[in-house]
Amino acid sequence: MKQKMEDEAERMLIDNYDKYYRLAYSYVKNEQDALDIVQESAYRVIRDLDKLKERKYLSTWIYRIVINTAIDTLRKKKRETVSYEDIEIVHEDQYKEEDPLEILNVLEDKDRALVILKYLEDWKLEEISEALDMNVSTVKSRLYRALKKLKVILEPEMV
């Protein structure tokens, strides 16, 4: 039974690698960091597979791990930036194209995850609720507030 679950997890990780990468990238906006997040997430999935109680939640559990790993990475980077702010020199490419998902950075981490899972990954509210361990009504209300916040930013003259 355990081997069967490991095989299924491995297959899911391989089959959905691009989705996990896009999700991670939407948080960190950096190719290498996103690759590291997916790699670390895969390690955590395999390491903690015995903690998963029901096999039917494997997919949402993996997404939750990717989201949490991305958030952990952002927190770690933020601490590093604060620790080294006196010596850090930030170089930005002035010709860099704007990322349309950049606007999502104004949202809190969980709200950003809601928007990404609902509108980019096309998840149902119930799936999001399972993945993020929230009530469906909480998912709806937070999603509504997140969209309202984005609308205010995108259409300030209409509010």
Short recap of the structure:
This protein has 159 residues and is mainly alpha-helical. The protein has seven helices and no strands. The longest helix is centred in the middle third of the chain and has 26 residues.
What layout of secondary structure does this protein have?
Blueprint: H1 2-15, H2 17-28, H3 31-48, H4 58-83, H5 109-120, H6 125-132, H7 136-154
InterPro entries: RNA_pol_sigma-70-like, RNA_pol_sigma-70_dom, RNA_pol_sigma70_r2, RNA_pol_sigma70_r4_t2, RNA_pol_sigma_r2, RNA_pol_sigma_r3/r4-like, WH-like_DNA-bd_sf
Keywords: Sigma factor, Transcription, Transcription regulation
Organism: Lacrimispora xylanolytica
Walk me through this protein's architecture.
The structure is a single chain. This protein has 159 residues and is mainly α. 69% of the residues lie in helices and 0% in strands. It starts with a helix and ends in a 5-residue tail after the last helix. Residues 102-150 form the RNA polymerase sigma factor 70 region 4 type domain. Belongs to the sigma-70 factor family. ECF subfamily.
Number of strands: 0
CATH topology of the largest domain: Rna Polymerase Sigma Factor, Chain: A
Gross morphology: globular
- Alpha carbon gyration radius: 17 Å
Instruction: List low-pLDDT spans.
Output: 82-97
CATH superfamily of the largest domain: RNA polymerase sigma factor, region 2, helix turn helix motif
Note the run of SSEs as H and E: HHHHHHH
Output the structural class: mainly alpha
Number of domains: 2
**Can you tell me the CATH class of the largest domain?**
Mainly Alpha
Q: Please, what is the average pLDDT?
A: 82
Helix content: 55-70%
What's the tally of helices? 7
User: Largest sheet, described in full?
Assistant: none
The CA-CA distance between the termini, in Å, is 56 Å
Family: Belongs to the sigma-70 factor family. ECF subfamily.
Pfam families: Sigma70_r2, Sigma70_r4_2
Keywords: Sigma factor, Transcription, Transcription regulation
Protein name: RNA polymerase sigma factor
